Automatic annotation (TrEMBL):
Parts of the chain that traverse the membrane: none
Name this protein carries in UniProt: S8 family serine peptidase
Enzyme active site: D154, H194, S384
UniProt family annotation: Belongs to the peptidase S8 family.
Matches recorded under Pfam families: Peptidase_S8
Keywords: Hydrolase, Protease, Serine protease
PROSITE patterns per UniProt: SUBTILASE, SUBTILASE_SER
Keyword Zinc-finger assigned: no
Species name: Microbispora maris
Superkingdom of this protein's organism: Bacteria
Length: 453
């Protein structure tokens, strides 16, 4: 355990530490502390002594006027070190008892920026996302989503609302859109809701993509479990998407599918090991059809989920490994969330995934002021927003790089390799391979094009 040790050595040593022009080391003031490995890279710090401004006051109370003395006879010195985890209690008790100059021993916990959680105000707006995704640079490369069908598997899209919110035309491909049998309504004309937010966010990087409206989340069919009612329609939707893909000419084949939904609870599913299980079962029909659609040339993205340990969604009921089922599929990209300041949002689900351990794959931007589809003043939030943001970036790439030239597996690898690593070197279960990096993608595509020329 890392600890901070507060000492009160002789006044001349305190004065030497307080004088920052004179280098001092931990050993100068704390040599020989039993059971402590001193951190010699940490220069000792002089800490003032608090004293009440009025006689008889409590020097430990911050609710009264205090004065702070740095006089050598009053101040103390802090050093840093480590104590073996199995000896923490005994060593902390022993140090002040055996060394009169030891005032106290404190924990030295890891600290990080406060994470954005649900209910927090927006961090930046969609124009910040546009800037971070280098949309002008993408556009100058001809990567704007032109001609690319982008399927939004959600609650339906309200195109008029998206157009008004963006201030630009929105294309909905009515012919390729599809409704489950239990859902009535016209593509692009559903009530403003979650799917409208997803459509808005996907168009940030791919403003000219053709939206394919697939309102599976409006399904009311019932099955053997909560997810069966949904997944049966999702399977039918993916079969429809396969027809769209197969009907395209090889030289321009492209289909991007964004899925901002998933299972929150094992109560929605059969238990792992049960033949009907979805969360851990690669043989589940939906997991099979996701893999087959990806192999046929579709780019499939799933939200990692909102079950991050710091501020998880109240619906989250998996005790661990909450990225389940197709959200953890090896042939899909699982998208975590960061805010526009670059910090991981506290609700973004962490890996390992259940079908594939290395999930999430990458992170994209969320929790920004965007569509307003979730309510006045409400940010576009959750990995629900991060997923279509990333899907839009993929659709932008597809406007010049069809699946027959850059297969989905290679594009997934490209996104992972160019991602901006934000945590431990290499892969980690908070950020995956890092944050999507449009500049890195553009550079990699340029190199690929030059090599092919």
């Amino acid at each position: 355990m890392r600890v901070l040790i507060q000492l009160r050595p002789s006044p001349d040593l305190v004065a030497a530490v307080a004088d920052r022009s004179v280098p001092s080391t931990a050993s100068d003031v704390a040599d020989g502390l039993p059971g402590v490995v001193l951190d010699q890279s940490y220069a000792p710090v002089a800490v003032p002594r608090p004293m009440p401004a009025s006689p008889g006051g409590d020097p430990l109370s911050l609710n009264q006027p205090l004065i702070f003395s740095m006089a050598p006879q009053d101040a103390s010195v802090v050093v840093r070190g480590e104590i073996a985890d199995d000896e923490v209690t005994s060593r902390i008790a022993l140090l002040p008892a055996t060394r009169r100059d030891v005032v106290a021993v404190y924990a030295d916990p890891a600290i990080e920026t406060t994470l954005t959680c649900a209910g927090d105000p927006a961090v930046g707006d969609w124009h910040d996302v546009e800037r971070l995704l280098r949309v002008p640079d993408l556009t100058s490369e001809g990567l704007d989503g032109s001609g690319v069908p982008l399927a939004v598997i959600d609650t339906g899209i309200n195109a008029a609302y998206v157009k008004a919110a963006r201030g630009h035309d929105v294309t909905v491909d009515h012919e390729r859109s599809w409704n489950p049998a239990s859902v009535s309504g016209t593509p692009g004309d559903f009530p403003v809701d979650h799917g409208t937010m997803c459509a808005f966010d996907a168009l940030i990087a791919a403003p000219k993509a053709s939206l394919v409206d697939v309102p599976v989340l409006l399904s009311r069919r019932q099955g053997g479990s909560t997810l069966d009612g949904l997944l049966s329609d999702a399977i039918a939707a993916y079969a429809h998407l396969r027809e769209i893909l197969d009907a395209q000419p090889a030289e321009s084949r492209a289909l991007v599918v964004t899925n901002s939904w998933g299972s929150f609870s094992p109560r929605w599913d059969f238990p792992p090991g049960h033949p009907g299980n979805y969360s851990d079962n690669p043989a589940h029909p939906f997991n099979l059809i996701v893999g087959s659609l990806a192999e046929a040339g579709a780019d499939i993205l799933f939200a990692a989920g909102n079950c991050g340990t710091q501020c998880r969604d109240s619906r989250c009921a998996f005790p661990d490994r909450p990225i389940v089922g197709a959200n953890s599929h090896p042939r899909a990209l699982s998208i975590g969330g960061i805010d526009t300041a670059g910090a991981r949002v506290g609700y973004s689900s962490q890996g390992p995934g259940r079908l594939t351990a290395r999930k999430p794959d990458v992170c994209a931007y969320t929790h920004f002021a965007g569509s307003g589809a979730l309510g006045d003043g409400e940010p576009d939030s959750g990995t629900s927003a991060a997923c279509p943001v990333a899907a839009g970036l993929v659709a932008a790439v597809r406007s010049r790089w069809p699946a027959t030239v850059l297969p989905p597996a290679q594009l997934r690898t490209l996104l992972r390799r160019t991602a901006d690593d934000r945590s431990a070197v290499g892969y980690d279960h908070d950020y995956g391979y890092g944050v999507v990096d449009a500049a890195g993608i553009i550079a990699a595509l340029r190199r690929r094009a030059a090599k092919a020329a």
